[in-house]
Fold these 2 entries.
Entry 1:
Amino acid sequence: MNAADSPTPAITMLRLLGGYQISQALFVAARAGLADQLLDGPIPLAELATATGLRPGPLARIVHALAGEGVFALDAGTGLVRLGPLGRTLASGLPESVRNIALMWMDSHYRAFGELWGTAETGRPAAEIAFGEPLFDWIGQDPARVRAFSAAMTDFARAIRHHSLDAVELDGARTVVDVGGADGTVLAVLAERYPHLRGTVFDLPHVVTAAPEVLRAHGVDDRITTAGGDFFVEVPPADSYLACFILHDWSDEKAGLILGNIHRAADATDARLILVETVLDEGAAPEVASLLDLTMLGVLTGRERTRPEWRDLLAASGFRLDRIRTTPGPMCVIEATRVP
Ligand SMILES: C[S@@+](CC[C@H](N)C(=O)[O-])C[C@H]1O[C@@H](n2cnc3c(N)ncnc32)[C@H](O)[C@@H]1O
């Protein structure tokens, strides 16, 4: 491409400004299951419309816009629609699928971000302004939202954070609590890899109800139990703790309450704590850490943190930062030890 072909700054900015349209077009594609319909090969647009219950005219224009982004490809001659290079990420259940993230983000986070101005002015999370209550309270009002949120976390674990689970080392652990373990997917995968391991998936009562089925499906329900509760009040005892994608949700003050409860509950004086989080300036794919930092600004009170910030946060609650393992993905594994 020579300079004459480069988009002008105004055109580049227009594309950025139009991001809201692409987000919602992706939501339509995800919700309708377009990618699932196309997994076995190209099909005519009219057939795609019939299969998904969408009107052919609007569908054609949405598919056309997303073809420009590499999600679909359209053959003008035959009218056939096929998956583009990104298409499989919107199919269900594939290792690279982020369909559930599309469904959750575009329902809750998209609405929240309409209030980002209020966050910039007041510091209050946009989600709280939009929903009138903190995000997790709002999610908890509706079982469908709870399921959608946990499904999105499973997509994160499988498609975005799988490298980090490979870097979680639990050889020395006998019992582990997964603090904020959602539907149990993360601990189930780890328990498969560590057959000696016993443990507990701990999350809000209305969230953890989904975990027994997941643990059964992974064949680890004889060793891994579930417990419902509030990690700002207390967490179950264990010799090792896992907190994936938890502390970044919360301010230093709130994260300190969770860490304090882990410190109190630990039944080994030198209990291990393993965090799966981003570390600003250190992980691969730093653009994911920046994006998540903006997400945290808009929907919760948390933030992504640098190595010194993690070290200080842990130290303030009686944990020593031992090491940070980077992974080929955006997440790092932060290993810490309880200091008596
Ligand atoms: C970002 S998700 C991470 C889920 C899971 N650890 C993972 O890596 O996929 C945060 C989790 O914290 C849970 N959570 C939020 N507030 C909680 C509280 N007060 N007590 C226990 N769990 C809570 C949510 O229900 C949610 O499952």
Note: Residues 174 and 259 are 20 Å apart (CA to CA).
Entry 2:
Amino acid sequence: MNNIVYLDHSATTPVHPKVITAMVEMMEEDYGNPSSLHRMGMVAEKKIRKAREQVAEVLGVKSKEIIFTSGGTEANNLAIRGIALQYANRGKHLITTTIEHPSVLNTFKELETEGFTVTYLNVDREGFIQIDQLKEALIPGTILVSVMHVNNEIGSVQPIQQIGELIKAFDHRTFFHVDAIQSFSKTELDLSQMKIDLLTISGHKIHGPKGIGALYVNEKINLKPQLYGGGQERNIRSGTENVPGIIGLGLAVELIAEEQKSKIDKLRKLKAWFLEEVTKQIDDVKINGPASIEDIYSEKSTPQIINLSFPGLKAEVLLHALEDFEIYVSTGSACHSRNSEPSHVLQAIKLSGRELESAIRISLGYWTRREELEYLLQHLPGLVSELRILMQR
Ligand SMILES: Cc1ncc(COP(=O)(O)O)c(C=O)c1O
């Protein structure tokens, strides 16, 4: 196989060719500022309106409830800070989990320095929060709960429907934010059926461009802006819109929605087959996250993320050894891989030191083919045993 085998889709995805074409057209021809009053401005504005409708339709919400941002990180910051600072008069208690993405965790850490109290829910060894712990954590004065849908490192899927119902039964005024960046297009998500007030998605995880994201904000919420300026995005997020990015995101969402059902089934089968093979062909492999075959075929596990430890070797060395064969995987999440700190997610699920240092993430995409995983399996067992022998010396 001469082509590259890209298995790092949870870090980012290749952009869909139709998305590239639409974006280039925007940059070459329809480059007007959507705030301009002339025809070119109107064209850009109309295209943004269409993208907003595309995203809203797939999420099952109203288009005015979609706010475009510079990506998932900004959308998470806006959701969390926007609620905390706007509704602090009702209470200053916030709840999240220990396995959130840094764009959520570090936002909560910052709010702690600004006088808020945060409860961080632990997860079990497969990466699930305990509903009872959430029940205990909710107190009068809890204004926001933020729980990610799918974890980006180990693929555990939190029961967000149940969590939403629990929160609202406790107090309908407590807001619920979901980081759905890794779940969008990989799990069923119909917001009209769920008690979610705010939800984040990001373009580059779904074959759209980088640097564009969207936040769903229930129309009843009065979110405190985090950027002030010309009043774009209903005054919630000022700044001239990233028109090509927005158009790219809208189209990516629409394209992916058409394929979703068949691709989810395909990915689930690929994942189950790969895990069966890898555990057969390599001794002492640990599957991190939901691991049983029932879980892999259930709603508890996301179909695209596989996290494995090969105790006795260093993940980074394996990553580079695979790279020599043009196979691209990651250690932990991409956000951590340049960071020498061990992954907070793998620590939260209580991996041993040897499991922690040898964990790699293989993340599949809509276009991943079985032959690519077969190619990986041609090299992985040999490399693992070579590296284990080297480590023993
Ligand atoms: C779960 C999760 N949240 C947030 C982000 C950040 O999104 P963005 O890269 O668009 O800022 C990521 C990206 O890795 C992610 O996986």
Note: Residues 243-281 form the longest helix (39 residues).
